[in-house]
């Protein structure tokens, strides 16, 4: 669903437990139920300097936790943590941050959040980043299928049986490779296991309660933790909210429709700036030319690298962050108007091609989503649902289906997604953009209904994914006020203005709010 594949610069990464179903449900029904056997008391965290030029006070530590939280005396794994310590005389305790995914690394996000918050607010918290189990510098690291996204992949839209078979073989092979490489770990990868890890982090920090700030998939992880331990939550900020009612198969179908609408918004923006791009003055005309470009690279991949699947990968980030629109439009115009494929290949290398680390993030993505909840095992169901959705939302429906299709063949049994309904929390703060594609706005409404006393701050007309601490002063002030006081109320903020074509000729400054944040949140993440 939320796609954490890592792209090349400037985008750093690409925006859904061996526990029986009954065990998970029992744990969630009794939030403070202890494990059957007491876990060994965790050693105090040993923080060491790991400063960077941008984050000069960043510290690092490692925490061991049980692979199976129901067998605390058994095998242990390691979680990689970071911290920006509080500096105020009085502290509000730890603020754990998560960038989503699943599969996203949160270590750098601690430095970003601490530097993006007002100084007086950041000073009150120990901002804690972490790599969830299986991710990044946590150990063991999952990597199921190196080269899974190497170009040129089969056309994502299976117009004939041969193309469908090629795609099916590819995703089945990935699932089989994951089992061959990580059979001992896969049953313990999932959102509930990650939430129990968060509780282990809280214990190791010696904190009676923690605060939590999650983006995208991180909103669901935070909601599951809050369900398990409502009395341990001090503040809860959920930005770009996953619909907890659709985890994960139905959420992906909703996402397909939202991404198609967001792609159309990009094409309308291109038409508005026809004086620059010369692709047409109407959105329908520009859309026709985009799909003509797709047909052209289907026949002859641009630069031998960019076929239709890679083209979709290249333009999908525009659905997460409109700051990419000028660069994407330039590449589109160069190919469609000037017949020059080089800028399109460059755009693919910048936005669509994946780094080696993407094998890790995508592996965790599939391991979590395929384990978290039931997926259809009958491919006929996938085919029928995907063609039905493709008929009204052709931009990335099939691309997204193949991204998630390993779940049709996943080797571990699926759990049942927990009901995150919660009446025992302090007020939570939710943020959402009305036109968000990766986590459609309806998900925020669903989550608000489930978290009693929560407040929703809406970015009216906004389409970016991950809206707080990215340059919208109105939203940022709401977050800061909430973290200061714990008080939250429903509110609306205007969206930031759309980008201008001239921005395409300039690289965004590394410190620019939107560009920097979306470089960490990524897309399909």
Automatic annotation (TrEMBL):
Pfam families, sorted: Abhydrolase_4
Taxonomy, superkingdom: Bacteria
All copies of domain Peptidase S33 tripeptidyl aminopeptidase-like C-terminal, residue ranges: 395-488
Cell division in keyword set: no
Gene3D superfamilies recorded: alpha/beta hydrolase
Family note: Belongs to the peptidase S33 family.
Record's protein name: Alpha/beta hydrolase
Lineage: Bacteria, Bacillati, Actinomycetota, Actinomycetes, Kitasatosporales
């Amino acid at each position: 669903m939320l796609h954490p594949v890592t792209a090349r610069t400037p985008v750093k990464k690409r925006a859904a437990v061996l526990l029986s179903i009954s065990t998970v449900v029992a744990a969630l029904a009794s939030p403070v139920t202890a494990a059957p056997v007491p876990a060994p008391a965790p050693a105090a965290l040993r923080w060491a300097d790991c400063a960077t030029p941008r984050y000069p006070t960043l510290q690092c530590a490692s925490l061991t936790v049980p692979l199976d939280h129901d067998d605390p005396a058994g095998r242990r794994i390691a979680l990689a943590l970071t911290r920006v310590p509080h500096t105020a005389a009085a502290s509000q305790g730890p603020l754990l941050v998560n960038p989503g995914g699943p599969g996203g690394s949160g270590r750098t996000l601690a430095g970003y959040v601490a530097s993006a918050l007002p100084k007086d607010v950041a000073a009150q918290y120990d901002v804690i980043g972490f790599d969830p189990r299986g991710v990044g510098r946590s150990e063991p690291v999952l990597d199921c299928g190196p080269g899974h996204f190497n170009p040129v992949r089969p056309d994502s839209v299976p117009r004939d049986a041969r193309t469908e078979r090629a795609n099916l073989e590819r995703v089945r092979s990935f699932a089989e490779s994951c089992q061959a490489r990580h059979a001992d770990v896969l049953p313990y990868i999932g959102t509930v296991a990650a939430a129990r890890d968060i509780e282990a982090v809280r214990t190791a920090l010696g904190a009676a309660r923690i605060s939590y700030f999650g983006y995208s998939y991180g909103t669901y992880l935070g909601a599951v933790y809050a369900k398990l331990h409502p009395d341990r939550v001090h503040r809860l900020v959920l930005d770009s909210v996953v619909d907890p009612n659709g985890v994960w198969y139905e959420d992906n179908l909703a996402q397909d429709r939202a991404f198609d609408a967001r792609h159309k918004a990009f094409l309308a923006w291109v038409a508005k700036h026809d004086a620059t791009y010369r692709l047409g003055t109407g959105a329908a005309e520009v859309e026709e030319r985009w799909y003509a470009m797709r047909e052209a690279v289907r026949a002859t991949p641009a630069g031998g690298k960019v076929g239709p699947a890679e083209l979709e990968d290249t333009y999908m980030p525009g659905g997460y962050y409109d700051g990419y629109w000028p660069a994407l439009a330039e590449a589109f115009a160069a190919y469609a108007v000037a017949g020059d494929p080089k800028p399109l290949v460059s755009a693919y290398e910048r936005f669509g091609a994946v780094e080696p680390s993407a094998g890790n993030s995508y592996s965790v993505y599939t391991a979590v989503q395929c384990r978290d909840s039931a997926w259809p095992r009958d491919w006929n169901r996938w085919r029928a649902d995907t063609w039905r959705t493709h008929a009204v939302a052709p931009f990335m429906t099939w691309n997204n289906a193949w991204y998630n299709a390993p779940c049709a063949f996943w080797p571990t049994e699926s759990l049942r997604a927990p009901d995150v309904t919660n009446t025992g929390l302090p007020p939570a703060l939710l943020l959402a953009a009305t036109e968000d594609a990766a986590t459609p706005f309806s998900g925020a409404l669903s989550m608000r209904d489930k978290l009693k006393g929560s407040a929703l701050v809406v970015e009216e007309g906004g389409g970016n994914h991950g809206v707080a601490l990215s340059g919208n002063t109105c939203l940022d002030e709401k977050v800061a006020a909430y973290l200061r006081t714990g008080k939250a109320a429903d509110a609306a903020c205007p969206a930031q203005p759309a980008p201008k074509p001239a921005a395409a000729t300039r690289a965004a400054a590394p410190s620019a709010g939107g560009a920097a944040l979306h470089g960490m949140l990524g897309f399909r993440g």
